[in-house]
Amino acid sequence: MKNIKKIAGLVLALAMIASLAACGSKNSAPETTKAEETAKADDTTATEESADDLLAQIKAKGTVTVAMEGNWAPWTYEDEDGNLTGFEVDIATAVAEKLGVTPEFVTGEWDGLLAGVQAGRYDLMCNGVGYSEERAQAYYYSDFYAFNRTALVVRGDNEEIKSLEDLKGKTTCNSANSTYQLTAEAYGATVKDVESLDGTIEELMAGRVDATLNAEVSINDYMKEKPDVDIKIVAFDPEVECVGMLMPYGEGSATLQAAINTALAELRSEGKLAEISEKYFGMDITSEE
User: Fold this and answer.
1) Are 123 and 96 spatial neighbours (Cβ–Cβ below 8 Å)?
2) Closest by alpha carbon to 153, among 102, 117, 204?
3) DSSP 86
4) Residue 112's CB: how many other CB atoms inside 10 A?
5) Out of 34-43, 89-98, 278-287, least confident range
6) Pairing of strands 139-141, 246-248
7) What does the pLDDT look like over 176-229, one tens digit per residue?
């Protein structure tokens, strides 16, 4: 029986390692900082009661401030009645419920949201935020809860751009400092700042840019909602984009990060993450598979 348990434990450990392979173990603070905070948490419970502890502050006020763009369907957008909805709204609401607090949503432009989290004006940012090493040095990430393919999009009559390598010397458009901008620039494109998917497609259709990059599920949703707009997906970034929630960088976020990770793990095991994904995307993007 002991040998069976050992084998089962080994299989589980290998499965967990495999599940992180595509994105890597990149969803937390840098190792040295994480180790320091773990030591502090083990030493005393003072951190939980500290005025600098973000989770304690959130529980004391009974609300968690969640930042998102609100104009990027089906991630975050307004419905016909003007109500904020979308995949990230439901995910943040479910996590807040696990924390025992109420979510307060704030919308704005991408760059402003990032700056607001960094300055501590917002507790979280939930907006399909893909992982990058640069961001991991400036923010705390939750565990990844969505895995995204980045699509290369052009006008229907464009036969020149067929791969990411064809972006060299071309012009694209995306939100400033988005992972899509960084990817386009890495392939040699010049990127024009645009603050919404609608604005991006307008630039593309007007011929002011050659292409754009965006989430596959967002482009599919756009083409379904606006079938008369002649655009097409011609390629995908081979790298999987791993999506997590952002928190202010610093030891005060350590307990919030841990609580959110616990909440996400429970929501995953309950099937809630997959349910929310199916609702908005028609597929489960909460699993790397």
Assistant:
1) no
2) 204
3) S
4) 16
5) 34-43
6) antiparallel
7) 888 899 899 999 999 999 888 999 999 999 999 999 999 999 999 999 999 999
pLDDT digits (tens, 9 = 90+) for 25-57: 444 433 334 444 444 444 444 433 455 899 999
- Give CA–CA dist 160/44, Å, rounded: 62
CB-based burial of residue 265 (10 Å sphere; 0-12 exposed, 13-18 middle, 19+ buried)? Answer: middle
**Cα distances (Å, whole numbers) of residue 64 to 125, 186, 229:** 11, 35, 38
DSSP characters over 14-62: HHHHHHTTTT-S-SSS-HHHHHHHHHHHHH-SHHHHSTT-HHHHHHHHT
For domain 150-236, give its CATH number from 3.90.1300.10, 3.40.50.12780, 1.20.1250.20, 3.40.190.10.
Answer: 3.40.190.10
Strand partners, 49: none
Q: 118 to each of 51, 68, 81, 249, 280, how far by Cα in Å?
A: 18, 14, 32, 7, 29
Q: What percent of the chain has pLDDT over 90?
A: 75
Q: Which fold has domain 28-147+241-281?
A: D-Maltodextrin-Binding Protein; domain 2 (3.40.190)
Which residues share a beta bridge with 214? 151
Instruction: Provide the whole-model pTM.
Output: 0.76
- Work out the angle at residue 183's Cα, subtended by the Cα atoms of residues 182 and 185, and round it to the nearest 5 degrees: 65
Classify residue 32 by burial, with Cβ atoms within 10 Å: 0-12, 13-18, 19+.
exposed
Where exactly does CATH 3.40.190.10 map onto the chain?
28-147+241-281, 150-236
Q: Which of 116, 154, 114, 135 is nearest to 235 (CA)?
A: 154
